[in-house]
Amino acid sequence: MPQLNPTPWFLVLVLTWTALILIYTNKTNFSKHLSPPPQKEMKMENTTPWAWPWS
Questions:
Q1: What is the per-residue pLDDT across 13-45, written as a single tens digit (0 to 9) for each?
Q2: Belongs to which family (predicted)?
Q3: For residue 55, what pLDDT band results from cuts at 50, 70 and 90?
Q4: Which of 26, 30, 33, 34 is 20 to 30 Å apart from 53, CA to CA?
Q5: CB contact at 8 A, 55 and 42
Q6: 43 in Cβ contact with 55 (< 8 Å)
Q7: Rounded CA gap, 55 and 42, in Å?
Q8: For the chain, how long is the longest CA-to-CA vector?
Q9: At what angle do helices 27-34 and 36-44 cross, to 10 degrees?
Q10: Alpha carbons 31 and 25: distance in angstroms, whole number
């Protein structure tokens, strides 16, 4: 079964590329979607900076 090995590897590669392209094309959309929630949560969760490591 040599076709069982390349299939998942190629799938992962395609998925990774798709995710990268989506992030690159929707960079502004991602920033707008990620910016509002953290700002509102940060004010409420000011004592938990570890909750937002990416912020």
A1: 999 999 998 888 777 565 565 555 555 555 555
A2: Belongs to the ATPase protein 8 family.
A3: very low
A4: 26
A5: yes
A6: no
A7: 9
A8: 55
A9: 20
A10: 11
Within 8 A by CB and 6+ apart from 23, the residues are 30
Tokens of 8: 């998942």
Looking at residue 6, its amino acid is P
Give helix 27-34 / helix 6-25 axis angle, nearest 10°.
80
Phi/psi-derived region of residue 48, left when phi > 0, alpha when psi is between -120 and 50, beta in every other case: beta
Lookup: tokens for 15: 């998925």
Cα angle 11-14-53, degrees, rounded to a multiple of 5: 105
